[in-house]
Amino acid sequence: MALFNFRREAAAPAPNAPAEMEAFLKGFSIEVMPRTAEKVESFRDILPAGTRVYIAHIDGTPIEDMVATARRLNAEGFPVMPHFPARIIKDKATLTDWVARYRGEADVKQGLILAGGVAQPVGDFHTSMQLLESGAFDGFERLHVAGHPEGNKDIDPDGSDKMVMEAARWKSAFAERTDAKMAMATQFCFEADPVIAWVDRLKSEGIALPVHIGVAGPAKLQTLIKFAIACGVGPSLRVLQKRAMDVTKLLLPYEPTEFVGALAAHKAKNPDFGIEAVHFFPLGGIKTNATWTTENGGASGRPANA
């Protein structure tokens, strides 16, 4: 399948993409790791100019590799948002050093602040709130925090979402006293109705953070199930399990068309609905994800408020 070359020709909406999908995908972001970014010869060839690129910081990845990836993406014209996982940051000095490197060497002005997936903190930090309160991110233009539409058993072992929602309320209040733009970037999901209910619940509880909904990009079904289980994806995992039982679909790659389409239709009918953007986890490969997004209308560039 040929890839769209954004360096040679202006990005244009896919001719067959519904207008609501194009509007919903406008300003999408995507996530990479240093080792996956190395496999991409040129991000300009596959992503619209100005696409926000998150850089996932997996435990054990040297900060030098993270900064080098951020520097490269910035040089290619993409605003970068590295992860800052609290539980892998030893102390305030380490955090300050990382921020200084990102800002000085890669002109980073955005960050995703999260607790991180490791069970045991390596040092002083164990929550994203501690990082936000540290003052290390003063001067950043945008700060995103993690969201959990299906809860998080690391935070709420009893299966409720009590602590998750308390943290969301704290982060929303923090957003009101910072100059940085803030949003909640979520784990990937596969079912629209629970996501819609969760976003509406945030609003009803006074949590004003706009949502950047996590979406798993096209991938083999086995790959998605493996990642979903590893990442603690909950109720919507049944969508994949049901698909796995259908022999007509078992060998076909999963595409998020139905999920994204349902959310796009809901947003079109409810303009005040709290999802502001889509964030892709390219579990089947960055180029594959970028091609699907382009073919479904996501080639229009960043929205004005980004």
Automatic annotation (TrEMBL):
| A GO molecular function held by the record | oxidoreductase activity
- State the superkingdom: Bacteria
InterPro entries this protein is in?
FAD-linked_oxidoreductase-like
User: What protein name applies here?
Assistant: Methylenetetrahydrofolate reductase
Q: Which UniProt keywords apply?
A: Oxidoreductase
Keyword Oxidoreductase applies: yes
